[in-house]
């Protein structure tokens, strides 16, 4: 059975993967964005928020690694954390490149609009509609991934609850065992004390009987053989 610490590490890793997928999808949206600037700014704002959430979860995993008792577990989690951090840096680089490509595309479109007039406006409208559809498809995919991750998190929480219940049961059993052990020790002491007392009683009875017999013999001796 996995420990509570292992469950928390697994949940943290699942959330990091979820944020990584969401960031990659947003970066792809930025690459395909042809404007206007307000759309690009909104996408960048969302990406920043996701990066902040991702950074916090990576820090949480790093802290969990430092709290491990076994060195092998600590190094394994630290290695996983470093891999997630490198992936985050790679996403940041891709994000910057996507922004440059998007801004260049917006600039080119604006130039084309000035040169071609109305035809460019219609082409841009069609492009925007295509981008909206693509964005909608990506959003649906992200929502599906999010639902799947939520189910996994819920299953992990149920596992933690089961572990907590099992821990309480083991603790209660241990307390009952300790109480039973104390009772057994007390009974043993009483039995030993009773045995010692029984031996003492037997010895006293024997001595009393011997004294009684000696007295009887003495009396008989005096009456039957008074001259001795």
From TrEMBL:
It is a single-pass type IV membrane protein. The keyword rRNA-binding does not apply. InterPro entries: Sec20, Sec20_C. It is found in: Endoplasmic reticulum membrane. The chain crosses the membrane at residues 203-220. It comes from the Eukaryota. Its main location: endoplasmic reticulum. Residues 44-71 form a coiled coil. Residues 134-224 form the Sec20 C-terminal domain. One of its GO terms (biological process) is retrograde vesicle-mediated transport, Golgi to endoplasmic reticulum. Keywords: Coiled coil, Endoplasmic reticulum, ER-Golgi transport, Membrane, Transmembrane, Transmembrane helix, Transport. GO terms for cellular component: endoplasmic reticulum membrane; SNARE complex. GO terms for molecular function: SNAP receptor activity. Belongs to the SEC20 family. This is Sec20 C-terminal domain-containing protein. It comes from Culter alburnus (Topmouth culter). The lineage of its organism: Eukaryota, Metazoa, Chordata, Craniata, Vertebrata.
